[in-house]
Amino acid sequence: MAWPRLSQRGPLLSRFSHHHVVVFLLTFFSYSLLHASRKTFSNVKVSISKQWTPSAENTSYELPEEIWSSNYLFPSAEEATLFLGTLDTIFLFSYAVGLFISGIVGDRLNLRWVLSFGMCSSAVVVFVFGTLTEWLRLYSTALYCCLWIANGLLQSTGWPCVVAVMGNWFGKAGRGVIFGLWSACASVGNILGACLASSVLQYGYEYAFLVTAAVQFAGGIIIFFGLLVSPEEIGLPGIEVEANPEEDSHRPLMSGADSEDEYEPNYSIQEGSTHQAAQAKAISFQQACCLPGVIPYSLAYACLKLVNYSFFFWLPFYLSNNFGWKEAEADKLSIWYDVGGIIGGTLQGFISDVLQKRSPVLALSLLLAIGSLVGYSHSPNDKSINVLLMTITGFFIGGPSNMISSAISADLGRQELVQGSSEALATVTGIVDGTGSIGAAVGQYLVSLIQDHLGWMWVFYFFILMPPGSRCYHNANRTSLVDPTSMSGSPASPDPCPTRER
To answer: Where is the composition biased (Pro residues) (predicted)?
Structure first.
């Protein structure tokens, strides 16, 4: 029965030290700051579009007409909007490529160094893109594209590193609710970015980029001096060597075996070793792709992230464009989508811990996501109703997205086949999130095209097709493989990558 096992998780809390709390908070806010800088761009799209077109009303600057006319990039707001969508696509494609690379790099270098470098260098690029170019009146589509490609590559260092660090500190028992709560870092970053942007937008959109870049740079410095990558760094046992004879009742949660008598630890490093992280070898990219569940969940996440990031990039613009609401007000209202994602990720993670399975929770949430999208697409021009439907949509879209990108990625990277090789975690996370970002990248360009030619309703029709596609890949995983995200059930299937060192 699942309940007796669940009731024995209480001792796990006693093993959480203040180091676990510090790691939780530092990784949480480091990725929140990365997401805040991305959110700034989506929140100021209307202002940027006006600045780039000659028909805009110059409300922020007192410039002569000839100077104002020579600054514009596009002859119409529609073309400016299409270019903004192109920038989103460029960012996500470079971000996706960077994720595949960053996961491999993160498993071979110090995760703290990689994360700190990514945060600080990305902050510099964001400052140049949004602030310096405006101060110097330097408008160039080629420059914007190059800077945003660099920003995508640099920001890709964040997610594989923070998930790997969290996976090093927190075991599978209780991971659903812990990672569900922790994965709210992206939504909190969206909220933080929206608040920072709306608070200084009246002075010009360049100050929104300036504030978020400065805060992100400071966060990168703190990460460099304050983050502990793994318990072994301070002499604590790793999560793979925490078990002892008195804790046999917890082992089925981590092994996936039905019977406690059949369970045998599969550690490649002796218990008590304080150098496990240094001795373990990172698996290759091909071997990580061969692990059960990695490809199906990656493809499912591609469909889901397409919708989630479309809301992330376009929701403030949609509220302002479709309902005529002020840009700063639309920024604040869009926060409620992220609130729904926070609640959804945490609650669904808790339920998956209770059931000791992730798959049923994901399947039900994706089914209900279709109804929530239909409901939101018919939202009236009423802020209260719109906020309610927006929150529900965030619950069923953002919740599963958070689970796949955090808890399930950690489950896949630490499943039975790779125990003893913690350096698989960042690579697997990079594959899952990288594939998701490719789907999101394609989606952002399609959103701008569909909206420009057919209108917003057809955009929502496009979104409604994505959750069923995600469920198809998810069901393929359930029928073809032993579910590696299940904390109970049959033993793991044979190693699909026999060439990997065991």
So the answer is: 493-502
Confidence grade of residue 153 (pLDDT, cut at 50, 70, 90): very high
Task: Please give the structure tokens belonging to residue 21.
Answer: 């709390």
pLDDT digits (tens, 9 = 90+) for 60-84: 445 555 554 555 777 777 788 778 8
**Contact 85/442 with Cβ under 8 angstroms?**
no
Task: Give the Cα separation of 209 and 127 in Å (integer).
Answer: 6
Q: How far apart are the first and last CA of the chain?
A: 32
Q: How far is CA 97 from CA 100, 116, 120, 438, 489, in A?
A: 6, 19, 20, 8, 35
CB 409 within 8 A of CB 418: no
Domain edges within the chain: 19-56+74-226+282-480
For the entire predicted model, the pTM comes to 0.69
Structure tokens at 495: 């190693």
Q: Of 3.20.20.30, 3.40.50.261, 1.25.40.10, 1.20.1250.20, which CATH number belongs to 19-56+74-226+282-480? A: 1.20.1250.20
What DSSP line would sit under 322-351, residue for residue? HH---HHHHHHHTHHHHHHHHHHHHHHHHH
pLDDT above 70: residue 200:
yes
Structure tokens belonging to residue 477: 């995983």
Q: Give alpha helix (H) positions in 183-234.
A: 185-200, 205-226
* Average pLDDT score, the chain: 75
Q: What is the tens place of the pLDDT at every residue in 474-486?
A: 555 543 344 555 5
Task: Give helix 205-226 / helix 18-43 axis angle, nearest 10°.
Answer: 160
- Give burial (CB, 10 Å; 0-12/13-18/19+) of 374: middle
Residue scoring higher pLDDT (207 or 399) = 207
pLDDT higher at 173 or 137 = 137
CA dist 271 and 265 (Å) reads 10
Taking a C-beta distance cutoff of 8 angstroms, is the pair 277, 422 a contact?
yes
DSSP code at position 376: H
Q: Which of 85, 110, 114 is nearest to 99 (CA)?
A: 114
User: How many angstroms separate the CA atoms of 75 and 77, rounded?
Assistant: 7
Q: Which tokens go with 469?
A: 């596609």
State residue 127's pLDDT score. 95
For the chain, give the number of residues.
502
Q: Which of 2-16, 44-58, 352-366: highest mean pLDDT?
A: 352-366
Report which of 174, 192, 97 is spatially closest to residue 434, judged by C-alpha positions: 97
